[in-house]
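Me: I keep going back and forth on a fold encoding question. No explanation is needed for now; the record alone will do.

Assistant:
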Amino acid sequence: MKAVKVSEPGPAENLQILDVDIPVPKEGEVLLKVHYFGLNRADISQRYGKYPPPAGATDILGLEAVGEIVEDGQCSGQYYLTILVGGGYAQYVTVPREHLVPIPKGFELQNAAAIPEVWMTAFQLLTKVASLKPGDNVLIHAGASGVGTAAVQIVKDYGANPYVVVGTQDKIDYCKGLGALEGFNYKEDGEYYKKFLELTGGKGADIILDPVGASNFLKNAEMIALDGTWVLFGGLGGTVLENFDLKLLMRRRVRFLSSTLRARPIAYKTELARDFHAYAIPKFEDGVFKPIIDTVYNFDQIVEAHKKLESNTTIGKVLIKVDH
């Protein structure tokens, strides 16, 4: 089968499409014929050698896929979306059967492919980590990203108040179209935190979703509400912080949490897949939730696709269509 690996850590040009063996499912796993997979920031970090796969996982990139189960060498016609520990950048991948989520009824595979990693991440962060509840003010950094656009819709559905931080006015407008109450352009307004505090009557954010890290830390410390929950799930703006006074967090009794999904135990992901299926799939089918797609590339355009994601110009997902 065809699969994508990294020749050596570095730029997108170091991605290589290679011929490798089709993986063999272990006990409790199935073989999935991949039709689409999505790109994620974690893939870029892995490409640079900064986010290695967990012990025992494949070095083929890819944290999600949409495809059909292969049984006894035959395609079953049963289509599923799934998160992965790796291996999604390929024509076939193995996955624990209990991690499979049926695609929403009436959905094309391309639209379903924009769901798994970003929507399950947003759902996990908001409901299982941050304990989202109606009325919460939720500040979402990288609000036009895949996770961000999913989070806006989930927060709105919960009866809470989504706000986004992004880098262009177009992204603000798009997120407001999804339900964000307001957006802030961090590139043009270095003191946007003041406007956010004004809009919330001085209360601030009950929940902050933060994939950025160090470069946003001081502003987040100003915006977090009393007894607020601050969830760090990435380090796009660095992970090393200097000269920070922890009393800023202590005075507000902040719950500072961090989360990743890739290396979570199989049992955790099984529960997540089940809960996500019950909550979200009916809302996709009813049109309440909308997966957001920026660009779709062919498999042999993987280098261009990575460059597109790195450009920070995208809104929603960058997808790859897999030919067989």
About this structure: The first strand starts at residue 2 and ends at 6. The two ends are 9 Å apart (CA to CA).
